[in-house]
Design brief:
Helix content: 40-55%
Strand content: under 5%
Number of helices: 2
Radius of gyration: 18 Å
Distance between the termini: 37 Å
Number of strands: 0
Structural class: mainly alpha
């Protein structure tokens, strides 16, 4: 929260940022993993995975019957 000055971006803003900066984000993630491996934070056989699941909402079900 302190980094954004308490701004609350909506999902479209975040999605656009990720779309526009995808290559840079991948490079930062790769460098972070390399840094973690170089400093011994990961075991030799460790794998790193990022959940990129996407789900479509079919419809909302009201719990108040």
């Amino acid at each position: 929260m302190w980094l954004t000055g308490r701004l609350l971006p909506d999902h479209k803003t975040i999605a656009d940022f990720r779309k526009d900066n995808g290559r840079a984000i991948r490079r930062v993630c790769a460098r972070f993993v390399a840094l973690c491996r170089a400093t011994g934070l990961f075991a030799e056989e460790a794998s790193v995975a990022i959940d990129g699941s996407k789900f479509n909402v079919v419809g909302a079900v009201s719990l108040a019957a």
